[in-house]
Amino acid sequence: MEIVTAKGLVKDYGSLRAVDNINFEISRGECFGFLGPNGAGKTTVMSIIYCFMPPTSGNVKVFSMDVTENRSEIKSRIGVMPQEDNLDPDLTVLENLIVYARYFDILKKESLPLAKELLDFVEISEKADVNIKDLSGGMKRRLVLARSLINNPELLILDEPTTGLDPHSRHSVWDKLNQLKAKDTTLILTTHYMEEAEKLCDRVAIMDLGKIVTIDSPAGLMKKHGGNLEEVYLKLTGKQLKD
To answer: Which of 72, 152, 209, 210 is most deeply buried (CB count within 10 A of its CB)?
Structure first.
């Protein structure tokens, strides 16, 4: 079953065409990655999928619903892990989850045990009463991941989920994402880390200048074009991935 379908997707910002007539489908339980340098259009595509902004033209459906017509229904079934750690600095770790649960009309008597369960899942239960400013970067990212799961989403969108993390913290987040994938949660991510794409993604879309250059599995791309995934990207676009 297709969770996301995009046909002829275009997004313009004034005279700038950020996404240029792209097509893709994402299946239930799949981890699908968008790869490309800054400005390739990855984050714009993600923002359209989770109904943050409308497309200029074309059609995008999530759970078979149009993103411009069924925003509330779609957003209630999606979790979003943004690139920025936009946690409330005035609240504790636990309070951040409980307050966020209100956006999904989850009552406090339900959100409290759920929040504790999620903190246990991301392995920061011992920090429940700690203020956000006292967390390490890796702990903040794990808390943002926990927050994105508060509504038990069917689809989880992750924008650069491990940017700025040390290798140990990065692998910790990967482990949690693989556990979610094993439970049939559909994952969509953007990343600059090729090892991340290889470890997590069933398929990737390589983007450049708003267009999709190719879609395939990481193994398929490396077999077809030779070299590692970053070398494949360089071959197909003539650009370094990290810019």
So the answer is: 210
